[in-house]
Amino acid sequence: MKYCLFIVVCFLTPFLYSQTKKNTDSVTYYNKLANNNLDNKKFNQAVLYTQKSINFCEVHGKTENLANQTLKLGKIYYNQGKFDAALKNFHKTVSLYDTIKPSCIKVLALHYIGVTNTAKGDYKTAAIYYAKANDLLKQLNIADHSEALEYQKALALKTNNDLVLAAKTFRKITKHPDNSSIIKTKVDSYYQLGLIETLLRRNDSAIIYFDKAIEYNDKINDFQKKSKIVLAISQYYKQNKNYDLAYSYLNEHYQLENYLLKLKNAKVDLNEFEKFKKNQSLNNTIKRESEEKIQLKTYRYSKLVSILAIALISILSLLSLALYKNNIIRNQNNLLLREKNKELILAKNKAEKASKARSEFLSTVSHELRTPLNAINGITHILLEDNPKKRQLKYLESLKFSGNYLTTFINEILEINKIESTKVDVENISFNLKELLFNIQSSLKELATANKNYFNLEIDQSIPDNLIGDPTKLSQIILNLINNALKFTQNGHVNVIAKLYSQEDENAIVYFEIVDTGIGIPEDKLQSVFESFSQGSIEVNRKYGGTGLGLTIVKKLIELLGGEIKLKSEVGKGSTFTFKLNFKINNETLEVIEEVKPYNDKQLKNKSILLIEDNKINQMITRKMLENKHITCEIIDNGEDAVELLKIKRFDMVLMDVHLPGINGTTATKLIREFDKTTPIIALTAISLDENRDMLLSFGMDDVITKPFVPDEFYTTIAKFFD
Questions:
Q1: What angle do CA 245, 247, 253 make, to 5 degrees?
Q2: 478 touches 470 (CB < 8 A)
Q3: Which of 24, 60, 392, 549 could form a disulfide with 388 if both were Cys (CB 3.0 to 4.6 A apart)?
């Protein structure tokens, strides 16, 4: 606001005298025509009338007005991108003010010379004129307007596509102390920073700046500016393929535009009503004059005409009053509806933000716990390989168990978050259901033996050998259910049944049943066991352990695959879980996939690997794990230095942490791939809700290793890139 007042005062001061003259004053007349054409974006006409104003000032010797008009013409040319013509007029303004007393207009001319040279890329000349403008401000003893001038400078840098320097200048503005005069400039600066970060594909920074712009804009309630920011956020989420949030913000943008349009229409309606009242009053006056003339001509009908005129006026007055009252009521109702609509939008946005905050909180917690867990699991693995003493072995095994338990817990939280945020894709590939169930039975035999359970598998032989579906999610469902059955059953029976429920054309419905003779579930807990972090009772949790997330994941996965889980249970007698799933039948012979051979230490020996990791503990653990296999390891703690090193030095492999200070791992990988297409790059990530394997591979990475590392999987993934 201070900057706007500064500009207005500077431009209006020379014209105060001319405004007192008649409307025929040529400077005022040409200015009005030029401004109207500028409002309608008719720049050639605006230039024509501004030039006429300049000619008038030259003929009549109006030096100060002439300086103002040349500055105005320069700004018109600058906005059209005609920088040479703009500079010519700005220099003319400065020359004219050299002959008269300097004012704030001269400051603007000097500043615009700097801005125009910035837009042309001549930063050295621009710096000279910025300095001159600031010096003249101090001479004139005018309050500091540096943030507004800096904003114009930053826009010019952006126009010249010098995004880095422009961003630096915008950030400088945002660091100024908050006050009422700078809020609008800060809103514009945060908005421009968001646009620049989006262009530079720094997505995390972009959304932070847009949120800051919204936060500051709320202090001044500039709905037009908010509409632009919300539209930019919508385009940001669309670019990042988050279509739900993109649509939500786009809808808010349209609602804001609609609200602004209605405010404008309401103002137009009020003006029309005032015009109607004025016309109505004029009509009444004309009618009264007409009646007076008639009375003069015909006295005989004067009384009757008067009565009729009074009656007519009364009716019209009543109609006018009714119309006026109805219009007031309508406007009040419209305002009330707009307020209610605004409240509904705010409530909706709050609910969406709360849901997003919950999801992001769980994702952040699971993500942040992986880094220390990687240290726990990694150091435990290193100590176990270092021939520990027998009395230390049981402590290390306990530590390993605890680390694996926490890893499972975090993975389950992330799985639920992904399902709830619809970021889980359902596969449709061929697989052998019978073979899958036999493999699950084999993997759980040890747990069955530990609890002295009879573990039986019944498979209907009429089930087609080759089905099309998602074997990974089906395995996760059945493993969770069988694991629960074996855990809560001792000296009992666990039966897994798979039957062909129906078959029609190319579709088969398979019925699954998992029955145990375990502790059972109370009737009042049959529904709550499917809720997150819920088990039958506190005593069950203390005795048997577990996260209380397994059945939640099972229920959500079955619903995702188009089924519904049912539960029957009786305390002390056991539980029965049943569900049906629909599969397509593959009539082609299923390809036999050869089992991947485990890695060989000789494949890893004497290889050189560059590790890019900023966490000191993770650096130590990863280096030790690599050196245990006789691998040479060099460490860099940021992406910028890693890119520069790889330009001059070759490695057999790069291990790239995704989250790094400065540029992140994905950006660093894109930069490396510009000059190195062959060196394997493997992502190291504590994978979060917004990350997935395909997304990371799309940046040029060859594979992904998830923190905390499972040692055998870590070595196997590395080894497959070496012959």
A1: 105
A2: no
A3: 392
Residue-wise pLDDT for 528-563, tens only, equals 787 754 454 444 444 444 545 678 888 888 988 999
**563 Cβ neighbours under 8 A, 6+ residues apart:** 579, 580, 581, 582
| 3-state SS, residue 60 | helix
> How remote is the C-alpha of 425 from its chain's centroid?
21
Strand partners for 431: 467
Angle ∠(588,589,592) on CA atoms, nearest 5: 140
Closest to 534 measured CA to CA, from 522, 547, 545, 516 = 547
Rounded Cα distance, 712 and 721, in Å: 15
* 189 contact partners, CB below 8 Å, separation of at least 6: 151, 154, 170, 171, 173, 174
505: left (phi over 0), alpha (psi -120 to 50) or beta: left
Q: Compute and round to an integer the Cα radius of gyration of the chain.
A: 38
How far apart CA 349 and CA 357 sit, in angstroms, is: 12
Q: Is 631 helix (H, G, I), strand (E, B) or coil?
A: coil
Provide the β-strand partners of residue 443.
none
Among candidate residues 529, 442, 453, the one with its CA nearest the CA of residue 488: 453
Chain Cα centroid distance, residue 256: 19
Residues counted in the chain: 723
C-alpha torsion angle, residues 150, 151, 156, 161 (rounded to 10): 110
Question: Which residue, chain included where needed, has tokens 């539980």?
Answer: 575
Helix (H, G, I), strand (E, B) or coil at 113: helix
Query: Token pair for residue 435?
Result: 């073979």
Cβ burial of 53 (10 Å; 0-12, 13-18, 19+) is: buried
d(C-alpha 494, C-alpha 638), whole Å: 53
Q: What is the pLDDT at residue 608?
A: 95
Cβ atoms 186, 224 nearer than 8 A: no
Q: Alpha-carbon torsion 205, 211, 213, 216, what sign?
A: negative
Query: 25 φ, ψ to 5°?
Result: -55, 125
Both tokens assigned to 596: 């991947």
Question: Which of 378, 453, 231, 473 has its CA nearest to residue 707?
Answer: 378
Cis peptide before 522 (omega within 30 of 0): no
Query: What pTM does this model have?
Result: 0.42
Rounded Cα–Cα distance for residues 502 and 61 (Å): 99
Q: Are 546 and 480 in contact (CB under 8 A)?
A: no
Tens digit of each residue's pLDDT (9 = 90 or more) over 228-254: 888 888 888 888 888 888 888 888 888
Kindly report the backbone phi and psi dihedral angles of residue 516, in degrees, each rounded to the nearest multiple of 5, phi listed first.
Answer: -135, 165
Q: Which of 138-152, 285-299, 539-553 has the lowest mean pLDDT?
A: 539-553
The SS3 call for residue 569 is strand
